Known about the structure:
The complex is a heterodimer of chains A (about 850) and B (about 90). Chain A is about 65% helix and about 5% strand. In chain A, helix 29 crosses helix 30. Chain A is α/β, with parallel strands linked by helices and about 850 residues long. Chain B has 2 helices and 6 strands, in the order ββαβββαβ. Chain B has a 6-stranded antiparallel beta sheet. Chain B has one domain: Roll (SH3 type barrels). The radius of gyration of chain B is 12 Å and the shape is globular. The interface between A and B is large, with 47 and 46 residues.
Amino acid sequence: MEQKKNLLVGLAGQQNSGKSTTFNMLTGANQHIANYPGVTVDKKSGSYTFEGVRVETVDLPGTYSLTSFSLEERVARDFLINEKPDVIVNVVDASSLKRSLYFTFQVLEMGFGVVVALNMMDVATRNGMTIDIEKLQHRLGVDVIPTVGRKGRGKKELRRAILATTKRKEGLPLTISYEEIEPLLKKLQEKLATTVLAENYPLRWLAVKLVEGDSEAERILIEHLGSSSAELELTRKIRREFEENHYMTVADYMVGCRDRLASSIVESCVTREAQGGFNISEKIDKLLLNRFAAPIFLILTVFLIYQLSIVKGYELTQYWWPFLAKFRAIVASLLPDAGLLHDPYIRSMGLWMVDSANALLNYIPIFLILFSLIAILEDSGYMARIAFILDKMFNAFGLHGQSTLPFILGGVFAGGCAVPGVMSTKGIPDERSRMATILTVPYMNCLAKIPFYTLLVNVFFVQYKSWTMLFLSTFTIFAALLVAKFLTATVLKTKETAPFVMELPNYHPPTLFGVGQRAIERTWQYIKKVGSIVIAVSVCVFTLLQFPGLDDNREAYYQKEMDKAVTKFYTKIEGNAYAPQFQEEASLVALINLYTDFKTARLNVKSADASKALDDAYRESYPNLFVFMKPRGDKDAKTINKNLRSLASKRKSLRREIKNENIENSFLGMFGRALEPITQFAGFDWKINVAIFSSFAARESSVATIGVLYQEGADDNKSLEERMGTETSSSGFTPLHALAVMVFFALYPPCLATTIMIKVQTNSYKWMLFSMLFPTALGFVVASCIFTGGMALGMSGFQMMIAFYLLVVLTTILVGTRNKWLPSRHNRTKAILQ
Amino acid sequence: MKHRKRNRCCRLCDIPPGQTTRIRCHHAKGAIRQRLLDLGFVPESEVDVVRRAPLGDPIQCKVADYNVTLRNAEAALIEVEEVSPESA
Lengths: 834, 88
């Protein structure tokens, strides 16, 4: 056969067989990820050139078989049928050869050229297995290449075997014999050969699947030949007659045939060293899955993740933030200069965008650490154990053991992000649980909610700080569980469920490349979120907060105030030696801007050395003006400096007042006011309403908005906490109000980026909309109950918090243990069996 | 089918950890059945019950040479017979 210049290779295999490491080994870094058409399953492909042939390799979803029960299986099968790859590389876990052979049989049955990559040879050897490769090749009739994907062993041999397979004649590979029904299969196959199906489908495979009763195969048949074809009638007859004669289904019989064949192959090719029957994984499991030790190890693991990623990562952000600040400074220098009272629109919007993005980008060190640790958990095999340990708890609320990972990413304890959380629900095989997980991950404590909580807690719950934080971080878990239960019992009731049948893979040491790649990939997803959606929405929010702007009267008033201050400045510096150079307004504005920038830069400087460096930098950049920043003995410059200080301070407070008034009169401000009659039941005033709305883009902005709204006393260098404290106490804002706001904030809709991810994962706008509306309604009802109820009962914020917490915990326990007194599904089957 | 002396039969979910059993048949249908078959819960094959999760559900089984976990609800659909230690 002539060698083709371009080959299409499909990489197929079961989960945990090391398919992705083999894929990385084959293609190297040259990969890209897309989606299979119409579904959310990742399609990873890559290419390499070997001996002058370009080989395009597609990594198929890892599935246990190629039936049509799950989305991944259908995707993998459709790819094989439609794209007809030249060669299938079947990655096989050498350490559990028998089960892997079931899959190999299915690929062989489809009639493809197959190369078996016998992966994880090291594990097999360690477990005392010796595999006779020659014999295995002989039995399967295809090339078998031993590989160790993680260490890149067997790469060349595998690439060579792929080319060799395309040149080989067909007909050599093993055919699975179905013993008694072989003649019937032959007959059906011959019949099918006369139909149009012969062109597009491997007939042996189709015949086997039809007899087995595979729904997808039947669909193909009906689609091409109609619902009353002789072929369909024949398959039904074969099934019926077999079952009448054998007291078992054809499908069971065929499974038995395959199982016997697999057993016989394993028996003839594998020799096992007699050993204590104890491998390393089992030894580790003895300890980690021990009834008493398991919870301790689990809590330790979670605690370690928290300490390393959130606590240490937060420390790292101190080193990371200066880079972001530098970035902001660069952007600020590129934008048009600030005016005296008003900045050019493009400047304020540009800086607003940079600030919004920076607030999110600040968390990058945390995410890199968090995602690396989680990748380690996944690759090592412990994640599957966590699912095993926690499944019962999750299952009681309609979730799944594998919901653990999304919840940890979303921030179970304190700090995470719902975007990667929602993304990671992909692996949950049970559709109903998966949906419930997607819709409840946003209740976790995302990193961006923390500053807002901290602010309110520092103002209203100072004495009970740690209790309140504990309340917030644990209350959300109970809330998520209850919501999951509610959703799975109502709107999600009709969704498909799947059994929790999961392999516990052997423990593997994770590779640096694998972990690093996953961590960077997930962090990149996060950055993309910041880059696109958050910035876009921040512009909308900015516009809504900015327009329609002040009316002319107020505008004139502020202008007059500013003019007064400027005149005062000129009067004070009259006769000053430097006075002439500031007679033009532009030069004065430039001076004030420089002064303000210098002051801001000084605030960020920690050490004396850095402060000196800053001075030198400014002295060099502004040789003529620097003297007014630090006069040092120059009497005239000192006068300018003194008056400049008061002028700059006046300007600052005027600008702040304008901003405040602007927001109050803005579209968003009006909207916030318009909602006050409703939101008063929850105790929200218009400022809180505005903060809530502006935080939809990204929760970070809520603190910034609140910061603008509460600004009386900002000039006296009071912190936002103090300002909010004095201002709110005079307006009657109590800890009870704060509690209602915090609870609403905990329950309220996910940020826009998360809802977009929900759209991607559910493939439906309907669910995306639901994910926004339901939490809003829920949060509002709960907040209203807390506030209105608390007012009626005359309870303080802290008392109400305790009462509410107890109620939630009690409900959760009751719901979680209701199986104890209601007949469960597995008790019902007992009745059937007896 | 060949007849062999049947031991006491019961459901997989009722087997205490540490026991070896042989699968007699499935009562599961469709996707559950396929999944169980894929993971090696094939009639006539042997299954060891290794342990239960700390909360009592799911259970961990050893099929051939790998570990699979399944919930009691699914294990209840698998009919097994106990294998006495000497015949194992």
